[in-house]
Design goal:
single chain, alpha/beta, nine-stranded mixed β-sheet, 9 strands, globular
Length: 333
C-alpha cells in the first residue's frame, strides 16, 4: 500500500527563510503561487508581463521577474511550464543561476525521467504534483480543504528533500487531503498512460466511435451527442464519488446489466493489447522521443488533429447544443 502523509507529518520550518520561485503562472502556477503566499511563504513569480498569464499575475498583485532573475533570487525553483519548453528554459535561464543546496522542483516528472533536464549533483530534485487541475487546487484551498498530492525525491543532496517536499505540499493545501509518496518514474509513466489510454485518448475515441455509430445507424446527431457525450459527465461523477460499484448502484438495472455484458465487447482483448503496447512505448521512451520531435517541427500533427476535431460533426453539433444549456457553463476554443 502507498505511504500517506498528512498535516501532522509536516515540518513547516523546512521552508523558513527560503524564497520560492514559481516559474510560469498558468493553471498550476497561479494556484501554487497564491496558495503558498497565503500560507505565509515568500514567493516570487517568473512570467512574461506581455502575456495573458502575465497580466493575470499582475492583477493578483505579483511583481513579475524574468526566469533568470527568479532563479537567481530563489532557493526553491518550481518549474511549472509545459513539458516541451522546460528543457530549453532550464538550460538557458535556470541552470546558470543554480547555487549549491538549491531545490529544483517539478509537478510532473517528464523532463527528469526522460533525461531532458540533467540537474547538477549539488541540488535537491523534488516533485510535488497535485492530482487535480490548478483551478481546483486553488478553490479547494480557499475552502479550507485541499487536493491530494504526490511527492517524489529524485535527488536528496541536502538530506532534507522529503521534509521540503511535504512542507511545500502543505503550503499548497495538499496535506489537508493527503500526500502519497511515489517516484519520478512511476508518476511520469502512469500519468502518460492514464492520459493516452483512458482519460484523454481512450475516452475521446470512445465518444467519437459511439457518436458515429449512432449517426450511421440513422439517429439524429443531436440525440447521439446527448447519449454519448453530454451524459458521460453523469457517469463520471458517479465514478468520482464512489467508484464503479457506486455507479452501478446508481444507474438502472437495465443499464447495469447492459454495461456488464456489452462493455467487454467494446473494450476487449484487442483493446487491452493496444494498452499494453502504449505502456511499452511510454516505458521505453519512444513516446517521449516522438513528442519531442513533434515540437521540433512546430507540432504539425497536433495542429492537424485539433483542426479535425474542431470541424467534426460531433463538435459542431455540440457547440450548437451547449448554447441551449447555459447551466453547463459552455466554453469555446
Amino acid at each position: 500500500m502507498a505511504t500517506m502523509y498528512y498535516e501532522s507529518d509536516v515540518d513547516k520550518s523546512s521552508l523558513e527563510g527560503k524564497t520560492i520561485a514559481i516559474i510560469g503562472y498558468g493553471s498550476q502556477g497561479h494556484a501554487h503561487a497564491l496558495n503558498l503566499r497565503e500560507s505565509g511563504h515568500n514567493v516570487i513569480v517568473a512570467q512574461r508581463p506581455d502575456s495573458a498569464n502575465g497580466r493575470l499575475a499582475q492583477e493578483h498583485g505579483w511583481q513579475l521577474h524574468s526566469v533568470s532573475e527568479a532563479a537567481a533570487k530563489a532557493q526553491i525553483i518550481q518549474i511549472l511550464l509545459p513539458d516541451q519548453v522546460q528543457a530549453k528554459v532550464y538550460k538557458e535561464d535556470i541552470a546558470p543561476n543554480l547555487q549549491d543546496n538549491d531545490v529544483l522542483m517539478f509537478a510532473h516528472g517528464f523532463n527528469i525521467h526522460f533525461n531532458q533536464i540533467l540537474p547538477p549533483k549539488n541540488v535537491d530534485v523534488i516533485m510535488v504534483a497535485p492530482k487535480g487541475p490548478g483551478h481546483l487546487v486553488r478553490s479547494e484551498y480557499e475552502k479550507g480543504a485541499g487536493v491530494a498530492n504526490l511527492i517524489a525525491i529524485y535527488q536528496d543532496h541536502s538530506g532534507n528533500a522529503k521534509k521540503l517536499a511535504l512542507a511545500y505540499a502543505h503550503g499548497i493545501g495538499g496535506t489537508r487531503a493527503g500526500v502519497i509518496e511515489t517516484t519520478f518514474k512511476e508518476e511520469t509513466e502512469t500519468d502518460l498512460f492514464g492520459e493516452q489510454a483512458v482519460l484523454c485518448g481512450g475516452a475521446s475515441e470512445l465518444v467519437r466511435a459511439g457518436f458515429q455509430t449512432m449517426v450511421d445507424a440513422g439517429y439524429q446527431p443531436e440525440i447521439a451527442y446527448f447519449e454519448v457525450l453530454h451524459e458521460l459527465k453523469l457517469i463520471v461523477d458517479l465514478f468520482y464519488q464512489g467508484g464503479l460499484s457506486y455507479m452501478n448502484y446508481s444507474v438502472s438495472d437495465t443499464a447495469e446489466y447492459g454495461g456488464h455484458t456489452r462493455g467487454p465487447r467494446v473494450v476487449n482483448e484487442t483493446s487491452r493489447q493496444a494498452m499494453r503496447e502504449i505502456m511499452e512505448e511510454i516505458q521505453n521512451g519512444s513516446f517521449a522521443r516522438e513528442w519531442l520531435c513533434e515540437n521540433l517541427v512546430n507540432q504539425p500533427v497536433l495542429r492537424k488533429m485539433r483542426e479535425r476535431d474542431h470541424d467534426s460533426q460531433l463538435e459542431t453539433v455540440g457547440r450548437k447544443l451547449r448554447k441551449m444549456m447555459p447551466f453547463v457553463n459552455p466554453k469555446e476554443v
